Amino acid sequence: MHRIAAQNSINLPLYQIKQIGLEGRPRIDLKAFDTWPPSLTNGMPHYSQAIFSDAIRQLGQYIDKLKSRPPTGVLVQDHHPSLGEQLFDATAAAKIQTAQVAMYLEPKWRENLFRQLDLLHDPDGWEGGDLPIQQASFATFLRAICQIKPRRRPGLGLSSTGHLVAAWVSGDDDRLIIEFLPADSVRWVITRHIGSDEERFVGHTRAPRLLECLTPFAPDYWFSHEDEARVKPTRRTSRRKAHPLQKTST
Amino acid sequence: MQPTSLPITIPSATKMKKSSYKRPPIVEAVVGINFATPVGADVLEKASEKFAKYYPQHHAVQNVTVALGMIDGKPTTEPQYNELGHRRTNIDVTELLVLWSSEFTLSQLAPYPGWDAFLDRFARDWKIWKRIVRHRDITRVGVRFINRVDIPANDGKVEHEKYLTVYPKLPAQYRPVDGYAMQARIPLDGGCHLALNSAVVPSPIIGRNSFVLDLDVAKDHDLPQNDGSILQLLNQIRSMKNEVFESFITNRARKLFNNA
Amino acid sequence: MRPTDGNALSVNWLEYFPGTPAHQLIESARAMGTIKNVGKNSAFAIGQVAIVKDACANAGFPVRVLYAPSNGNPSHSLIKNVIEDDLDLMATLASRACFPVIKLRNQIPH
Fold first, then answer.
1. How far apart are CA A169 and CA A154, in angstroms?
2. What does the CA dihedral A70, B56, A96, A32 come to, rounded to 10 degrees?
């Protein structure tokens, strides 16, 4: 019998031995998993196979002794959380996600991010039926931010479906807005004013390609501070670096 | 040996050097102390409440052991063990405290503040714990550091052998590998042992492949029972862990931790 | 916007209420609070119907603005044909049609 940590579903610990009967000949596949905190197991498959013989069970117990205990990946009793608890749990999950990349974030950046997340999830003014921040969306945000490394913090918003939206504003109300969707998907729109004209550019790409897609629009115009060398993208610049994206203008 | 009276101070000689890396690859650091005699649920709850000032967020948690069986071809379950505990965190969810009847666990998520700060927090919390729970014989002292090394990828591939010294050794015709996971138990000096877990994990950083080095160094016999000696042992274990970690990485990896 | 909004953006008609602009704003916010959860950190954007319609039409998203009073919110109106998921339209509304953004904080009587 193995000690099982129970959550909403049953997670079987450490090593499970699977005996495969293949053309009548038994094989043993050794699969190792799940010694990590839960945050490291995102996306990793769980292997759970029955143990069919005493010999294999003993082997499993021997290997089981090698395992490390889960550090703090403990489990929460089931109860009906209040709205405040639900929102706190959502922001707590986002903060734990942030810990995975905290070594790449400036401390002040991270502190302000947490403050913004808390404000977005204030129970006062929360619209019923809205979803709090979705981990899949936040994961895309973190991956993108760690690559872009913007010096200026964006304004943050939350869609009703729990997708994080980041907005940078520069100059005469020029805006870069990025919506972070699950599975590394991002949508973005640039609005900029050239004289009395307004131009808008819209794109949909994957997070690893985001910086490259924004490059023709001189993204440092939004990502760097005013005292840094920051050049507003000109119409000529954008034409020279044409990019196969939908362009709308007024 | 009789336990020393409170308060606990950390002798200056045991203060360790700060981490020398600008961006240490530590995802989580844990200190765990196990006891021979379980603490009763009432006392455990009282102890938990004493930590509310430092860890205002509280979740009741439980470990459930279930026996799975088959009767007449139908699966059955029978709860056999149900342990209640308390999990507390600070507002930022970077500092965690988990209290079980037989275990006191302190955890720090990234960003890692350095060993001195972490040990100071342990000393503070251990003092609070002892004030409520009083002395109990200790059966295990452990320090666990979960590190993640994010290696730049080239077309999705990394030469992890140039950054790590611990990985599965395979015949040349079976390289490159798509992933691996390994575990080892290694005796160390002073009656300690290391449980090493290492694996490829999904990387949270674009353009990198990530490798976890999970080092759990513990001692479960001939343990000190007074607080000062426990702190010294923790420092010794941490030094051992550092030695092991440094032997598992190369200078290329060290450059990553300083430049990132 | 939410999928349940039926491609319409819920707004309030400021001039429905008499008095100074500040008073109109506070009454509108209070009326909106009868159908939505208006918290102390809620922000309100003010737009002019002609500019909203013009900006959206020029951007390729013609909209209609309708007076649609409801119980408890007599100044309620709708901007119809607003596609919930369209980032470009949302950006157009944000940059050209709706300004300024005001937080009323403790000024809304509850």
1. 8
2. 10
B195 and A CB contact within 8 Å: yes
pLDDT digits (tens, 9 = 90+) for C23-34: 888 888 888 888
In chain B, whose CA is at the least distance from the CA of A99?
B110
Give the single-character DSSP code of B157.
B
pLDDT tens per residue across span B181-198: 999 999 999 999 999 999
Element (H, E) at A125: none
Q: Determine contact: A200 vs chain C, CB below 8 A.
A: yes
Please spell the DSSP secondary structure of A37-105, one letter per residue: -GGG-TTPPP------SHHHHHHHHHHHTTPPPPSS---B------HHHHHHHHHHHHHHHHHTTGGGS
Taking the model in full, what pTM does it have? 0.77
Indicate the DSSP class of residue A15. -
Residue A142 CB partners (closer than 8 Å, separation 6+): A97, A98, A100, A101, B204
Chains that touch A (3 or more CB pairs under 8 A): B, C
Q: Which residue has the tokens 């600070």?
A: B90
- The residues, any chain, with a CB within 8 Å of residue A184's CB and separated by 6 or more, are A140, A143, A206, A207, A208
User: What are the DSSP calls for A173-237, one per residue?
Assistant: TEEEEEEE-STTEEEEEEEEEETTEEEEEEEEEEHHHHHHHHGGG-THHHHS-TTS---PPPHHH
